[in-house]
């Protein structure tokens, strides 16, 4: 399916909406109401004026998902970038980071897990015992500030229950994959509830290393432990405590000189994360006028990312290269807010929210490189990056008559980023940024709502530490002088204009959500290639103008009968780079202005069905599709377009569920990351495209016992 075919598919779906009430339907089945928690107040997804995709617990089980990357293709206009063991960086509507090496970065797409900000730490996206994933498209500048320029991924794990319950999960599949999990939940006392979830996920990965004759150099080894408490010491006070421990020790050996799943790396890499985090949230309802919420979170992560960048065993040719990045990250935040209760409106009937927020993060990097180009060379770097943010925010919501709702929100944030390293690079950038939203809803009737909104998102500026450091090490006076004028770059702003329609049809058995959007990217932060000396390349970031993103999102969910459910989602996206010019690896100037932005496929879709039969059986089949996309803004190499087929067959009898499942059943080769440079001395260092493949055909058997 190409870009234009996808547009025709969208038009056909719209025609189906218009004639939907003529379709036969049972009077009994209806779509369950979905409540989202990512905004200031819990609200129905169908009444929220924003484009939102919900991945329910049932959808996670249906895909046999272990990590967020297993289900991202469900959501329209959402992509991810690998370049490691997992897709650690996300793009929404074509906006988002794609990698991180030595330089510090702010996030364009936020990742929040149970109230803890794990942005830029995609390995934290384990989904065992997760109740719901909310993917909010568009700037979230009022509620989340600089972590959500393009949108937010909010993961909510299951809450403690009032009745004792639990489950045990076991699974196995090809590539030596194994999984085990356990959940125990229930009351500890009359006012205290608890829940514990533990899961272990492992496998050999999909790469064969011919140098070491091993098939586990790109392995998965992930442990997740989570404990939650819900305490009501008095009737007016709720206290929720979440403690998370993540221990991931994955291999990383995904690229080869021949662009296959067979490598010759003599020093396979790794992708590790050990995180301990705690979030404490209290809600006080004692005042007749307002609720008071306070949330404190603390996160400590040790990260290690290393790889063999020659992807080979070229020691006999005098070439060897391995680099390792170790990061110690400490972050803490506090968020205090007041929310009005009914009957305490202000300004002619507006309910209100007011709050303050503070965030502090420190990242210490220890980098080492062991390289040999016909003679030994070893490099090292240590750096510290500190980021502090302080914000005040508020929102007013008016009900105007029986049909209109007007919302106005704003957030003012001050940030201060400081950087120092052992190369002698030091810099500080501080600024005040403003985000906000204005939305207008029209309640057409009990089954339909239309809205229009304008949101302003932002992300902080930063320091071009890597480029400047390499210039200093090489003692290149011209490069040093140039980069002194480009040491820092400004924050980026995204103005997101959006209109949407959310509706029920066929006696509430069919939901249809349609959104059109346009994003004006102001001061877009773009990476520009830079040659310090002959064949010694780096990159720096600068702000460019004239970039924009626009498109459509359509999602349909039809409970056609008690046994049959049909669903589909499609995203259409067009992006344009602004005034960007870069030098390629051949020292030629590439004028990228007007070209599509990186990792912004022109279309994406997901469609499928679930069917229950013979009382105890259920089956599902679904197809994901994605257009080709550029890997980078600094070269013109692209992925292929692809379609993937997934299926699941389950048998449930009482407390026991057994499933046979498969993903990518046609064993389609597709790319999730790509680079373009010379890396093969046997070919005379000719620039070539190097790609990382996504998951091949995987299948397995899983079982669950509920008690």
Give a structural overview.
By secondary structure, the protein is mainly β. It has a single domain (3-706), classed as TonB-dependent receptor, beta-barrel domain (Maltoporin, Chain A), CATH 2.40.170.20. Helices cover 6% and strands 58% of the residues. The strands form nine sheets. The protein has a 22-stranded antiparallel beta barrel. It has a five-stranded mixed β-sheet with strand order 3-8-9-6-7. Strand 6 and strand 7 (116-117) form a beta hairpin. Helix 3 packs antiparallel against helix 4. The longest helix has 16 residues, at 3-18. The radius of gyration is 25 Å and the shape is globular.
Would you kindly provide a brief summary of this structure?
This protein has 707 residues and is mainly beta.
Fill in the keyword field for this structure.
6% helix; mainly beta; disordered N terminus; 707 residues; Maltoporin, Chain A
